[in-house]
Design goal:
With 219 residues, the chain is mainly α. The chain is built from 9 helices and 2 strands; from the N terminus they run αααββαααααα. A two-stranded antiparallel sheet has the order 1-2.
Length: 219
């Protein structure tokens, strides 16, 4: 759910920045920039960010409070790992805000709900499958990439619906009913996009997927 252009309360946007800035600073510190610059990430990461900017620009809306677009953050998190995904997502948010003329006060909360939350959800799914599921490629492709991508999109949508209800007074039946029907439909598209991209990259270019371990899944 796209919150970028909504008239959000100042207290909420300030809280968003207070939470987002330390987390983003931690991500910048944790990225191994020299290794990233010398590896395949140096070529793939900028192209991925450009693709996400284009994807986020294909934006639809239903009624004044509900706007949406596909995310791609789950794929970015699986491909580049948590810290580069958070930094890259911040770049995507900044570029789309600049191009779309959205109020910069909303950028913190938009990054938290649209980048940090979905990245955390898909990586949590990955962590659970590593502990609980057999080391099988189809587990990674279907459970992590496909269902993890859907879960990450749904989590972002639920967070957006909660903000609409709590901050803007949208009726709960509308936000968690009609709006989430759209989100659930788009989650299937997000799952397909993530599953397809990550599965193909894992097979043909495993070095491009930081969270994929060929020795584990192709034993």
């Amino acid at each position: 759910m796209d919150l970028s252009r909504l008239a959000l309360p100042e207290a909420l946007t300030l809280a968003g920045w207070i939470v987002a800035l330390p987390l983003l600073a931690l991500a910048v510190r944790r990225v191994r920039w020299r290794e990233a610059a010398a590896g395949p990430v140096a070529q793939v990461w900028p192209a991925a960010l450009a693709a996400l900017v284009a994807l986020w620009s294909i934006r639809g809306s239903v009624e004044p409070h509900f706007a949406f677009h596909l995310s791609g953050i789950a794929a970015l998190a699986l491909a580049s790992g948590p810290w580069l995904a958070l930094v890259g997502g911040a770049v995507v948010v900044a570029v789309t805000f600049a191009l779309g003329g959205a109020p910069w006060a909303n950028a913190g909360i938009a990054w938290l709900t649209g980048v940090a939350l979905p990245a955390g959800v898909v990586l949590a799914v990955l962590a659970v499958t590593r502990r609980r599921a057999p080391p099988n490629f189809f587990v990674y492709a279907i459970v992590v990439a496909f269902f993890g991508g859907a879960a990450s999109y749904l989590a972002s949508g639920v967070a957006g619906a909660a903000i609409l209800v709590g901050a803007l007074g949208v009726p709960a039946g509308l936000a968690f009913g009609d709006y989430l029907i759209y989100v659930g439909t788009l989650a299937f598209g997000e799952a397909t996009l993530t599953g397809m991209l990550i599965s193909l990259a894992a097979v043909y270019r495993p070095a491009w997927v930081a969270t994929f371990e060929p020795d584990r899944y192709f034993r």
